[in-house]
Design goal:
2% of the residues lie in helices and 46% in strands.
Amino acid sequence: MKYLFSFLVCLTCSLSMFAQTPEKMSYQAIIRATDNTLLVSSNVSLKILIRQGSTTGTVVYEETHAVRTNNNGLVSLEIGTGNSVQGNFSSIPWERSIYFVETQVDLTGSSNYTITGLSQLLSVPYALHAKSAENFTGTINALPYRAAIISLTGSRTITNAEINNTIACSNSATLTIPFNFTAMEIGDTVNLEAHNGAILTVTAGSGVTLNYTDAGSAVFTSRVGNVRFGLLRKSGANAYIISGQ
């Protein structure tokens, strides 16, 4: 049976005591079968690679983890604390480039890994890079990355502005992903929110797969006084994965 690997909002970094930057990043992911059922209470193996510059760039760090999914199919680990295969996590020059995290998984808990996820690291590396500014005496004007919140009040096609940002649906509407939406690169994501009783429908155009279904769709139904969350990620030239529905 084939499996798919669904990412959560998964990479976080927090400061420890004495303002020291921790040499690790928290990471979570959900593993599902192709029928969208959760792979629960199972031993799996993960390989984490950090690529520099692009999705096919040089691997500057690689490690493996042996973990177990919980009752919700969730795995949790800390990048930087696994079994090191290549490089040193604490020596990654975050200030020199952009970076991508590639995740490979073996559902049997062995080492027959397959590529299941690739996503750009955004604000997390800059928290780690802060340590390199400890001796800097000049003025730093750059702000950390913050997602823009873009309102969706009527049905329309996804736009370039929403890539790596958040769509907030306050009135029931349909968001369409067109064929050859090349502005969104593999690994790019869009956060999805349906608010206060609104229904957000995401549909793929002809020739576009959503969760491995051609012209597929996903529905996020929120309750009054509540919010329903999801995550859209581009996984191929005209292929997308969506979680949370």
